[in-house]
From TrEMBL:
Organism: Ectopseudomonas toyotomiensis
UniProt protein name: Polar amino acid transport system substrate-binding protein
CDD domains documented for this protein: PBP2_MidA_like
Family: Belongs to the bacterial solute-binding protein 3 family.
Signal peptide span: 1-27
Cited Pfam families: SBP_bac_3
InterPro entries membership: Solute-binding_3/MltF_N (IPR001638)
Sorted UniProt keywords: Signal
Coiled coil location: none
Amino acid sequence: MATRTPLRSTALALACTFAGLFTTAHAAETPKTLSSGELKVGMEITYPPFEYYEGDQVKGFDPEVSAALAKRLGLEANFSDITFPNLILGLDAGRFDTIISGMYILPERLEKADAIPYAKTGAAIMVRSNAEKKPATPEELCGLTVGLQQGTSWIPALQKVSDGYCKEQGAGAITINQYPTTSETSQALLSGHIQAHLEIDAASLLIVEKSRGRIAISSKGSIYPQVLGIYVKKGNAQLLDALKAALDDFKASGEYAELLKKYNLEEA
């Protein structure tokens, strides 16, 4: 079980950080939220480029999306920092209004919350630059130790490859090591505790850039491409509909396409 980090709430000064970014009127009637005038967004703020701290400011794709949607609803975005595996639990417990945190839309998650598609991406395989083996596909991970962040959807996918393809080929099982954060997974790769690290494309590019040549992407294209979702507690139709309307307005403005391009993502 993942160890929960302390819950931190960080309100962006939207008037300063995103001044002049939006000129549209409210895209929808301001919905009822947990705190008047605020849209509380749950996210794990240790996951660049999706969300991360720069000093005391929250930066990244998801904070920018959150701010844009909140603005269109006449609200101010406020961020609750919580570990990824606990986000759905926090939403259900009423700790925040919505989750916008690079989270795939999966059947098991839709049993507990409703989701709005907002972007599309896949995963990449990373290895040390001097690694002897540089797997390009999940099937080439047979016999290797692979690190992933806890709670990611690729864990059962890799287990299926290991139990099926790897076993049939007599190539050795995939050993899966899970870590609380993606940064800890990267450190495990650099220290030699794992031989490969599977992570979302956009995050992988930043990890490689920050590694100063020590980590490389070995896969040739996106692996397990899926859709990212904005999650809302089941039964909260008012907020779900309001966020859908705000997202549609954001897309129509052309600003959303620019934001997706900035973070190397595709529209869902």
